[in-house]
Design brief:
alpha/beta, Rossmann fold
């Protein structure tokens, strides 16, 4: 089993990164092979609406997405982790998602699907405790997973965590992340 972790935070060793690492450790403990991609380290140009993807499900922009697309398609499990910026995903995560229009075209227009049974989870971390803090991000992630032929199979949404590394002091966050990883790898 191949698990791909997508780290959408610009802050290394911050709360989002720590929780994603714990989830990936959970999948490894269940025997999964893990790869983590730090989106902030990639050069991903936002979608330019060239519509080249409508022909063959391939984007014509030559940037780091060229090597990310196959990883998105080959993974059995995707875990997207992002802090919440203004009630949404980070720009890094959103750029990757928007560029997955090519995968949406493959699935919905060209009727090319990936292996069945692929699963995904979202890890979201927000500083505030707003009731609707994660609503926009969760909706976006659900559509992203649908476009990439992945079933939305879990989430870990942590409110009230902001300072770098603060998730280490959260009473349940790290264990919940680890357990999420185990469940994803076992289901």
């Amino acid at each position: 089993m191949i698990v791909l972790g997508l780290m959408g935070s610009p802050r290394k060793q911050g709360n989002t990164d720590l929780l994603l690492d714990e989830a990936l450790k959970g999948t490894q403990s269940a025997g999964a092979q893990v790869e983590k991609i730090v989106l902030n380290e990639l050069h991903i140009i936002p979608c330019q609406e060239h519509y080249a993807c409508l022909k063959a499900g391939e984007c014509d922009i030559a940037d780091d997405m060229v090597w990310v697309y196959p990883k998105l398609v080959e993974a059995d499990v995707l875990i997207l982790a992002s802090p919440i910026f203004f009630y949404g995903l980070t720009a890094q995560a959103k750029a990757l998602i928007d560029r997955c229009q090519a995968l949406w075209v493959r699935k919905h227009r060209l009727k090319r699907t990936t292996a069945p049974g692929r699963r995904g989870a979202f890890i979201g971390v927000g500083a505030t405790k707003g009731r609707k803090l994660f609503d926009g991000a969760v909706l976006t992630v659900r559509y992203f997973f649908d476009a990439t032929d992945v079933a939305y199979s879990g989430e870990l949404l942590i409110r009230g965590v902001d300072k770098k590394g603060e998730s280490r002091q959260h009473p349940t966050a790290l264990k919940e992340a680890f357990d999420l990883g185990v469940r994803l790898a076992q289901s």
